[in-house]
Amino acid sequence: MSLFELPMSDEPSQEFTCEIGGTNYLFRIQLNVRGDLWTMDVSTADDEPILQGVALTLGVDLLSNERFTSGLLFLVDYTGQNTDPTADNLADYGLIWSDELDG
Q1: Which of 15, 40, 65, 79 has its CA 20 to 30 A from that of 53?
Q2: What was the pLDDT predicted at 103?
Q3: Total tally of structural domains belonging to the chain
Q4: Does the residue 38 lie in any domain?
């Protein structure tokens, strides 16, 4: 099993490219201030949308609605408090991709 942590930051609007399963994807992570939650958009390397507005929440496969690559993408709370990230604490979380569907 392989695990890979995607490079998130504390910035309220961030963009990065990651190679997952041999393919490059463009990720956008944004803070929804009104809802006090973080969302993720995923596009192809050519900026064609694949996923839009997926809430970064614990306990779910963030790719479950659109299986564009094999594996799982999930959020980990490094504080151990088992709460979803808020505007103040995204740095306490990791966005992890695993190459095993059965995790």
Answers
A1: 79
A2: 44
A3: 1
A4: yes
CA distance 17 to 24: 6
Asked if 55 and 42 count as a contact pair (C-beta separation under 8 A), the reply is: no
Number of other CB atoms surrounding residue 86 within 10 Å: 12
Do strands 49-55 and 72-77 pair parallel, antiparallel, or not at all (unpaired)?
A: unpaired
Report the predicted TM-score, pTM, of the whole model to 2 decimal places: 0.87
Residue 50 covered by a domain: yes
Instruction: For residue 87, give its domain range.
Output: 3-98
* Residues making up the chain, counted from first to last: 103
**103 assigned to some structural domain:** no
- Would you say 40 and 50 are in contact if contact means Cβ atoms under 8 Å apart? no
The predicted-structure confidence for 16-69, as pLDDT tens digits, reads as follows: 999 887 899 999 999 999 988 999 999 999 999 999 999 999 999 998 767 677
Q: Which residue has the tokens 């970064």?
A: 56
Q: 64-83: b or e for each residue (b if 16 or more CB lie within 10 Å)?
A: eeeeebebbbbbebeeeeee
